[in-house]
Amino acid sequence: MASSMGTMVVALPKTQKNQAHTFLSQLPNTLKPKPTKTLKTYTTNFTCSATLSSTLQSTQKQEEEKKQKPLAEVWRKIHGEDNWAGLLDPMDPVMRAELIHYGEMAQACYDAFDYDPYSKYCGSCRFSVPEFFQSLDMPNVGYTITRYLYATANIKLPKLFRKSRWPDKRWSKHANWAGFIAVSDDATSKRLGRRDITIAWRGTVTNVEWVADLTNYLRPITPHVPCSVEGVKVEAGFLDLYTDKETECGFCKYSAREQVLGEVRRLMKVYENEEVSITTTGHSLGSAMATLSAFDVVENGVNVGKDGRKAHVSVFSFSGPRVGNVRFKERLEKELGIKVLRVLNKHDLVSQSPGLFFNEDSPRWLVKLVEWLPWCYLHVGEQLELDHKKSPFLNPDADVACAHNLEAQLHLLDGYHGKNDAFKRTSLRDIALVNKACDFLKDEHSVPPYWRQDLNKNMTKTEEGTWVFSERPISLDSHHDIDPHLGELGILSSDQSINQQ
């Protein structure tokens, strides 16, 4: 705390040129005033405190919060009703908070995933459904997980999956945990103004290297995902990941697509008398899955509830690649009305792939001319571009993998106020989270890189004094039966016919 001493000085007018300075005590007393009390002079301490500025900022923030409408009144705008007009530049505080919330749901997929190749549970979720949020120190998230998502690892994208080095002890030969479906609880739904179904997809475990595995080939979305119009195409690897399954494996006997549509259909019935929203989110590869699953939900009417009421469907994408062609973009945005907000770091390479040569930045006449090519991709929705070089906490010359990091993007969101505004943190979000799985913070902050790890790599000491790998039950018992709901949608018969081809 800095302090300064102030002294009061009285300035008298100069009466004659070159006259010596005269003090009050040296002047003759000729006015003979009435006796008065002695004039006492005090020296006052003026204290300048660093807390004054923070107090003023806190007061200003409280005043701004009072002016904000509650989320229950503005949630449709926050979820893209007006394509986020007026909410991103300058950044609306409620908008920022919701983006960070859904980003943390996507980040939870990373934090819960077992990456360790020496674990027989490698590729699974480290926590059971009931303990998921509590184990991740997210007890107040206000959502309940209703289903885990699994994808088959039998696709031609080897860097997307983790497998144990001990195949004879592996928890599953075919599956990898891919994310979860959760629904807001009663108290949270009241605050949100609706019942929110969130589908969170896990991204890749190898940062940016997985992009090299993409076939960079557009494939018709039908018959794998029924679509009522022709010409819609998506990246072949994404489509395989979304629709492939292994019937002999209990975890992926349903494709990821079937798991999503069956569970969403079930939840739409459970909450048929309430207003419902469906929000998909994901980072990196998870962003592509979030976009594709949102398209599928609306294209096949799974968001239609009682009396034809439609649940609002939106996507909050982080560092996502391009997914489909021109017709996919047109169908998703204009015809289905799905709202997509893509958050990215301008220095991230993944968001620039695939479609390096022909994309949404190309002249419209050129896109129209080459849209039939199997490598002409376009981004969908609206874009919020961040810049890690604006943050005083981050190393501006860090490697490309850091620019792709999700925790870093959540840090950037916390300090983002507008495209031309300086970085200024708005919450107490811990900057140490940035280095959880990368080396991005400047050394002056004394946060070690890649600091998140399991205690003793999940080894525990037995009563006999030997160290063994901790057992972890993996069960599907908490999942509801989705067969009846898939039957109503006609998905099973459709997929079986595909598998027979």
TrEMBL record:
Residue ranges constituting the Fungal lipase-type domain according to the UniProt record: 199-356
Record SUPFAM superfamilies: alpha/beta-Hydrolases (SSF53474)
Name a single GO cellular component.
chloroplast
One GO biological process term is: lipid catabolic process
Q: Which keywords annotate this record?
A: Chloroplast, Hydrolase, Lipid degradation, Lipid metabolism, Plastid, Transit peptide
Record's subcellular location: Plastid, Chloroplast
Source species, domain of life: Eukaryota
This entry's Gene Ontology molecular function terms read: galactolipase activity; phospholipase A1 activity
Pfam families for the chain? Lipase_3
Entry's family note: Belongs to the AB hydrolase superfamily. Lipase family.
- Annotated protein name in UniProt: Fungal lipase-type domain-containing protein
Q: Which organism is it from?
A: Phaseolus vulgaris (Kidney bean)
